[in-house]
Design a protein that fits this description.
Largest sheet: none
Helix content: over 70%
Number of helices: 3
Radius of gyration: 21 Å
Strand content: under 5%
């Protein structure tokens, strides 16, 4: 097993990291992350629906693939709900702050 050496971080990269942590950039990152999660949820739902329709119409599909797609969709949905709940909690916490 090879162990890689630690390399120093150039100052230009530190400046980029500091810029990424501004409130506007952080909000954009959260928005993009949630949008990506919703896109993943949508594609997972569509895939699950297609497989279930094929199974219901009698086409030759493996039952385990249908069940895996359905469970994957369920997990993605639960993750999206969890993210939504966290965002709502964070919003409420910000609204309670005294200015």
């Amino acid at each position: 097993m090879e162990i890689n050496r630690l390399t120093p971080t150039p100052v230009s990269n530190i400046n980029k990291l500091q810029q990424a942590q501004t409130p506007v950039n952080a909000a954009k990152q959260v928005t993009q992350s949630f949008a990506d999660t919703l896109e993943s949820l949508s594609s997972s739902q569509q895939n699950s629906d297609v497989l279930m329709q094929k199974l219901a119409s009698g086409e030759n599909v493996d039952l385990h693939n249908v069940m895996i797609a359905a469970e994957e969709n369920d997990v993605n949905f639960r993750v999206a709900i969890g993210i939504r709940d966290r965002l709502i909690d964070a919003y409420r916490e910000v609204m309670r702050m005294a200015v």
